[in-house]
């Protein structure tokens, strides 16, 4: 770059608006050119003043306590003076030739800002790590949900695929004559129950599924998820293996140990 | 008022050395003196009150942590604080831009370093700040816009040229000419 081209960069240098390549070129030039160095100093002074040349706004009063307590919090660790570590005495600008003073001051600022940038980067990485961990937990939760859906689908498939599976139609009873259901019942692998056209349960009530073995009391096979009149339930083999009939009743939400109402759907496994 | 100005500088230095000694009441004194200027600059850069408040907290936290490192020979306290304020604010602005941009940070166009600002120069007086505000008004809109995009938005010359859809050479000239005009406006009143 020619001298005039470098001279053209002083303003942007003072504002921190140069590319790295331009900045390096100008910084290499400054120690050799008193005019440019002086101009950089003067324009940097002007640029620094821009910090104060903004509309002045009072911060909210509550900010004071928040800032003061956060700043001195124990985790806000103090740093040790950097001078003792390097052994270099502080640069006294007034004792140096002007271009060297400018260069020294800029170097000092550069070191300080480099450290600041590093701390900022560490802070940013920590933030990213926290975000990544949060995302990983989210993914794990989704994976668990997906896993249990997959398990359930596999169990349903295994019931439907069982050599001893029987399909039983369930007829809607008095409470819901248009409801219909079907049970795929394998004594060895379990029971898949589906129903449609079930009326929406009143508030505080839920449908409960029962397996009623011959000559024995009904065994609860769980509460039915009610989804737009339709439901699918999977009954585990230990309950399903007892055979008999399958029935749905309307019960208080959360279920009851024994049915308290007449069945809405009922069907029997005829062996 | 040079006497009062000097008194404030001395006061600030004493305050920071008390902070270095672990005196948290000194931090409160520093806050009362400079929080308004810090908040105002952060607000100008970020245009977001909550983020500006976070910057104020960051700056005072950093000032407390680094009080032992503060070197009065290099910069007045106000300049030290304002450099931290601009760096923290621009960093948040760049992170915000990176979040918005689909490709994130473009490594091909590195952000300009903030190291170019000379701390010692921030010893300008309140009076000079008033002059500077006045002088900003006499710049052409094009010059003022280019300088403001560089200082308050942290854009490089080429970013500014792209933003304004102007040739790079034009932007360079506007920035330098504008700053020289500001310098002359300041020098015009009693500055050697």
What's this model, at a glance?
The complex is a heterodimer of chains A (271) and B (192). With 271 residues, chain A is α+β, with helices and mostly antiparallel strands.
Q: How would you sum up this structure, described in words?
A:
The complex is a heterodimer of chains A (271) and B (192). Chain A has 271 residues and is an alpha+beta fold. Chain A has a domain at 166-268: Sandwich (Immunoglobulin-like), CATH 2.60.40. Chain A has eight helices and eight strands; from the N terminus they run αααααααββββββαββ. Residues 80-101 of chain A have low confidence and may be disordered. Chain B has 192 residues and is an all-alpha fold. Chain B is built from eight helices and no strands. Chain B has helices spanning 2-20, 24-46, 49-65, 77-100, 126-138, 141-153, 157-164, 168-187.
Mean pLDDT of chain A: 78
Largest interface: A-B, 68 and 84 residues
What's the total number of strands of chain A? 8
Q: Which fold name fills CATH's third level, the topology of the domain at 166-268 in chain A?
A: Immunoglobulin-like
SS strand fraction of chain A: 15-25%
Uncertain regions spanning at least 5 consecutive residues of chain A? 80-101
Order of helices and strands of chain A: HHHHHHHEEEEEEHEE
List keywords for this structure.
heterodimer, A: 271 residues, alpha+beta, Immunoglobulin-like, 8-stranded antiparallel sheet, 8 helices, 43% helix, elongated, B: 192 residues, mainly alpha, Rna Polymerase Sigma Factor, Chain: A, Arc Repressor Mutant, subunit A, 2 domains, disordered N terminus
